[in-house]
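Dear H.,

Thanks for agreeing to be a second pair of eyes. The structure we're designing against is below in token form, covering all 295 positions.
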């Protein structure tokens, strides 16, 4: 038994298909299949149920995969520890961002990170909050940038900045002539919100309850869908300031107005495993984010 065999088994558990697992591991399907047979022979227990057009794991296979994931992560941590000892600010850093943050934050901070951390290769991924936290805890990601507070379990967290909400409305709306709004101005209005799974939805619902607004039946899959629906005159919505500034706010038919102080906001923070070997790189990336000056 070796780490490569365990890597094959975990890949098969993830995709449930021999061909796709072989592609993920960059080997031929016969090679992967033969190695897994040898692993079963070595362990003297069947790990895989080979059915026509379907792959399943036995109970023993499922239990071994869970251990194998931890072993593979430990092996990767050892490699990263060695690399980090030689140069803490070099190598790959796998970062996950929530969809309501990534497209709007990265264009502003990526050039600064490239300048400050030229030897650090950032691998960027986008997930909703719950799977993002799970992937950090499971070792698939080193760092997550997300909205706080959220149940991160044993992960360490750090607040980076506070992002005010702004109101997006059709250009002919009664509030479009106002320079700033209050929560009281929204009373009786109907707000368009994101679908379940987005943490921004929960933050917007809190504002709805405070303002006395109602939620529209329509639920959008992205901020860009919300933006277009508002421009079409179907209601109002709340946008984080990064998603409402610069070119993102220049949507035909759309007017965006800030709240008068104290404006509602969300907290953007970072989350990572306390046991990580990339603490120095994570701290450097986090230090590069708060340079934003939100208006």
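And this is the sequence the design step returned. I haven't edited it by hand at all.
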């Amino acid at each position: 038994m070796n780490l490569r065999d365990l890597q094959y088994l975990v890949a098969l558990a993830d995709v449930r298909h021999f061909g796709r697992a072989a592609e993920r591991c960059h080997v031929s399907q016969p090679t992967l299949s033969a190695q897994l047979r040898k692993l079963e022979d070595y362990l003297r227990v069947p790990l895989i149920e080979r059915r026509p057009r379907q792959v399943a794991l036995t109970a023993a296979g499922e239990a071994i995969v869970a251990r194998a994931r931890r072993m593979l992560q430990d092996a990767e941590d050892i490699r990263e520890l060695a690399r980090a000892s030689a140069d803490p600010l070099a190598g790959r850093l796998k970062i996950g961002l929530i969809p309501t943050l990534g497209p709007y934050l990265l264009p502003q901070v990526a050039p600064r990170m490239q300048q400050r951390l030229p030897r650090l290769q950032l691998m960027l991924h986008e997930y909703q909050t719950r799977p993002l936290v799970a992937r950090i805890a499971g070792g698939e990601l080193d760092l997550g940038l997300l909205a706080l507070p959220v149940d991160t379990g044993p992960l360490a967290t750090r607040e980076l900045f506070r992002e005010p909400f702004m109101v997006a409305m059709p250009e002919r709306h009664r509030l479009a002539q106002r320079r700033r709004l209050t929560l009281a101005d929204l009373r009786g209005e109907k707000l368009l919100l994101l679908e379940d799974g987005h943490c921004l939805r929960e933050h917007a619902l809190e504002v709805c309850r405070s303002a006395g607004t109602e939620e529209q039946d329509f639920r959008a899959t992205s901020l860009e869908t919300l933006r277009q629906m508002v421009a079409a005159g179907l209601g109002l919505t709340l946008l984080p300031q990064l998603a409402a500034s610069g070119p993102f706010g220049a949507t035909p038919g759309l007017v965006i107005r800030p709240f008068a102080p104290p404006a509602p906001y969300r907290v953007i923070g970072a989350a990572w495993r306390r046991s990580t070997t990339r603490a120095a790189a994570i701290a450097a990336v986090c230090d590069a984010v708060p340079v934003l000056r939100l208006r």
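Two observations from my side: Residues 91 and 287 are 18 Å apart (CA to CA). The chain has three domains: 3-84, 91-160+267-288, 162-266.

Warmly,
E.
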